[in-house]
Amino acid sequence: MERSPGDDSSPSPRPVEQPSAPSDPPDQPPTAHTKPNPSSGNQPAAPSAAGEALAVLSSFGRRLLVLVPVYLAGAIGLSVGFVLFGLALYLGWRRVRDKKERSLRVARQLLDDEEQLTAKTLYMSHRELPAWVSFPDVEKAEWLNKIVAQVWPFLGQYMEKLLAETVAPAVRGSNTHLQTFTFTRVELGEKPLRILGVKVHTGQSKQQILLDLNISYVGDVQIDVEVKKYFCKAGVKGMQLHGVLRVILEPLIGDLPIVGAVSMFFIRRPTLDINWTGMTNLLDIPGLSSLSDTMIMDSIAAFLVLPNRLLVPLVPDLQDVAQLRSPLPRGIIRIHLLAARQLSSKDKYVKGLIEGKSDPYALVRVGTQTFCSRVINEELNPQWGETYEVIVHEVPGQEIEVEVFDKDPDKDDFLGRMKLDVGKVLQAGVLDDWFPLQGGQGQVHLRLEWLSLLPDAEKLEEVLQWNRGISSRPEPPSAAILAVYLDRAQDLPLKKGNKEPNPMVQLSIQDVTQESKALYSTNCPVWEEAFRFFLQDPRSQELDVQVKDDSRALTLGALTLPLARLLTAPELTLDQWFQLSSSGPNTRLYMKLVMRILYLDSSELRFPAMPDSPGPWDLDNENPQIGSSVDIPPRPCHTTPDSHFGTENVLRIHVLEAQDLIAKDRFLGGLVKGKSDPYVKLKLAGRSFRSRVIREDLNPRWNEVFEVIVTSIPGQELEVEVFDKDLDKDDFLGRCKVSLTTVLNSGFLDEWLTLEDVPSGRLHLRLERLSPRPTAAELEELRKGTKPPSPYATLTVGDATHKTKTVTQTSAPIWDETASFLIRKPNSESLELQVRGEGTGALGSLSLPLSELLVADRLCLDRWFTLNNGQGQVLLRAQLGILVSQHSGVEAHSHSYSHSSSSLSEELELWGGLPHITSSAPELRQRLTHGDSPVEAPAGPLGQVKLTVWYYSEERKLVSIVHSCRALRQNGRDPPDPYVSLLLLPDKNRGTKRKTSQKKRTLNPEFNERFEWELPLDEALRRKLDISVKSNSSFMSRERELLGKVQLDLAEIDLSQGAAQWYDLMDDKDKGSS
């Protein structure tokens, strides 16, 4: 006997007979047997008075807490605007919060209703499905949902173990501030993941099984985390996730478990909605809410959205794991976004009374790849003419999506979208059509080309020839694609202090750079990541690999690989270890590089007939009818161009260098200031040019040349912009404009241009006007290379360089210029001379060892020198001079031993204006022998310090120069951070104390610092100079470690000579001098 619904509401319970074996009526869904309520027969106990009082006090306290910000604002003296702003912020947060909770409740209700409807409509008992029942390609899998529901609690246990034992230690090790990070609660809740539909793709490959799972998760998951050190708690309570998950079972093998591995990924980004708790409640503030969800979706996309995938091997020693984890793309689609027509008008004026047009632009998406076209102002039939290349990883599944918007200052208006499965492009090969826009009016014109990936280097020349005839912007068409699988590294060098690095990898081809993830505290990292690059011409391009610490400041190793090497490799593939330069002897990097040629099957394409082929316009073969009454116009013999034909000029733009650019790179969250990676953009006459990127340099040198055809139309300007290359968005470094009127009139402009809209920076440009001359003699002269060059010379000694002026078009230039250099070691340095032609390259070079000047008469050479690597000679005078100070004969040991001057084509009296310069050869040779002689007294056990001490009588000062230290003692594992402290005894106050700067981690520091004390000579002779070499113990401690010291009795030193001398350092108890 069953209970009626009314029995539950009766005031007194009635006994109910329970059947011994409950059964459901036929053809009905099974009823849910609820647990009996043990208190159903008793009246609920009334709440106690204490509980009611506590609830009232709690409610009153919460409302009183709202007034605390108002009180604090008044106490501090803030205006009411701060209170209103805080109130608006709270109301916005509350609105977002309520919207998320409401969405979560509605989604749960929909799922519950769907479960009940499915149970009522699909349940059939005691009979088979009729033969005429058929299912669509997307099938419901309720049996799979029942399995997931059964497994869900155990999956929660696994997730708790995974987060506590794997994720939490990784988070704690990533940052010192997160060492107390822990998961305090991990519950997946009672609402399991639901699979709304399953689609099986057949006929793709016999080696794999392809499944698409339409998943929906509206769960009551609760995950709480805590950082105990900062009393910070945060978490998630409730989440929605909807998307299509592709599962690939491959390879199929002839042994258990039949399937070798399982790959999972989302074809498109899933939708996500998270309900935050704790400190992360702040993420529900308007503006931060969408930002936080976007950041989390980016993290998911980097892990589980194409081209990324999760691979779970099911058998040990699985072959080609790299191929399964990062397979080669199925193909490349070249998308030509040509035009659109009949778009809707969105711009309104005068409050809608006047209808304008639209400013359309298009967004092109394929998976995570997104491209944005330029904006066409005031046009309903825009012509874009842009080309994009996208990687296709999965067919079927991925779609080409084009959305058209109207650009507005506030929010862009939607004009329509179209979607197309990439499988249709694969079938057609080339698809050129107008596609209607959904959600709006109008059509968009696309030309879609499927490019196959061929491992055939012989096809490269054909592809390059084809690409030369393609007009493509904003980027030139690609000829190949390079897939790099970064596996692991071995024996990376340690950081300072023998600490293990946090390695990451930067891979660059020209100005495109991609970065790997950073792995913490390891010198043998395993990345297992894949990267893909488009190549315009692999014969001349290189792959640059930089292994760095995650701060990007320390380079652990480098590799430069010419891509032409792949063209000769089997299957265009290299799978091996690569030795890293600028690193340890055993430092290696394992990578797999695969190149594929992008080939368009043009067998079915139709092209216009060539001019030499017969056609309808071949008038020589036509047979006009005799006696025709139609007057045929005479055939012209010449063209009739306008008067401006052939008067165009060519502007040659030399982008030379820049100086004092601003630094945009920041590391460690902005704490460490880096440099910039600058490049230059040029815009003129509707064309754009871009220089190469110079890495980490605020004074870059490009020396690049660009040419553009210009007309004499007044008002034209060359727009120049400098940017810092970044991974996401390039930073602006300045701009400048050059009017072409001056260049077209004068024919030449060479100037430093100040960059605008930035605090500092300037750019060196050289502009030339080249006027075409229609004479065969000029062409023949250029062809033979007999046209005289425009030479200039550069002289270099060490790091110093001097560049002469450029002499126009002559093979016998006369420069008449002089350059002077400071020389430290003349017996080992050399003068390097390079003669180059403007636009023609190197003409010759000369390397003159300065040691030849030491044996020359009066340390001077003045004669013709023959140039190497070229023809011709150069007349050069080079002379050495010794530098001696006027003050008590003190020699400048710290910076330069001698002075060199070289003069091209002129003998110049150089020494008249200098204070005291002599060119005595014996004196210079004696000084060089003394200064560079390796035979010196051995250093003591604590090391030595080099000092110069003398008395300057004219200014009544005692002067000391601390030059350097050598062979200092190392007490710990790391080298010391030495500095020198000087004290004039017997005074020990700060008035007589001097201190050098501190040098980092060295046993042989060089200081070259000068110190002075004002006192009479008789008093100086009664003093002692105490010199102590010390090192900082630690960053946070004020203690100083004494490395050694020495005391000099000034009465025993000849203060009039001032010679530099090495002194042995002693312990504190044994203070003496040597």
Write a short abstract of this structure:
Belongs to the extended synaptotagmin family. 17% of the residues lie in helices and 38% in strands.
Write the layout of secondary structure elements.
Elements: H1 49-66, H2 68-76, H3 80-122, E1 138-139, H4 142-174, E2 181-187, E3 194-201, E4 209-227, E5 232-249, E6 261-266, E7 271-278, H5 288-304, E8 310-313, H6 321-325, E9 331-341, E10 348-349, E11 354-355, E12 360-366, E13 369-372, E14 383-392, E15 399-406, E16 413-421, H7 422-428, E17 430-436, E18 443-454, H8 460-468, E19 480-490, E20 503-509, E21 512-515, E22 526-535, E23 542-549, E24 555-562, H9 564-567, E25 573-579, E26 588-599, E27 649-659, E28 666-667, E29 672-673, E30 678-684, E31 687-690, E32 701-710, E33 717-724, E34 731-739, H10 740-746, E35 748-754, E36 762-770, H11 776-784, E37 791-797, E38 800-803, E39 817-823, E40 830-837, E41 841-849, H12 851-854, E42 860-866, E43 873-883, E44 898-904, E45 917-918, H13 921-932, E46 944-952, E47 957-966, E48 978-985, E49 993-995, E50 1006-1014, H14 1017-1020, E51 1024-1032, E52 1040-1049, E53 1061-1064
Antiparallel strand pairs: 1-3, 2-4, 3-4, 4-5, 5-6, 5-7, 6-8, 9-14, 9-18, 10-11, 12-13, 12-15, 15-16, 17-18, 18-26, 19-22, 19-26, 20-21, 20-23, 23-24, 25-26, 27-32, 27-36, 28-29, 30-31, 30-33, 33-34, 35-36, 37-38, 37-40, 39-44, 40-41, 42-43, 43-44, 43-45, 46-47, 46-53, 47-50, 48-49, 48-51, ...
Description:
With 1074 residues, the chain is α+β, with helices and mostly antiparallel strands. The chain has 14 helices and 53 strands. The strands form 12 sheets. Strands 1, 2, 3, 4, 5, 6, 7 and 8 form an 8-stranded antiparallel sheet that branches. Strands 9, 14, 17, 18, 19, 22, 25 and 26 form an 8-stranded antiparallel sheet that branches. Strands 39, 42, 43, 44 and 45 form a 5-stranded antiparallel sheet that branches. A hairpin with a 6-residue loop joins β42 (860-866) and β43 (873-883). The longest helix has 43 residues, at 80-122. It is globular, with a radius of gyration of 40 Å. The N and C termini lie far apart (116 Å). The model is unreliable at 1-46, 122-134, 604-632, 886-898, 905-920 and 925-936 (pLDDT under 50).
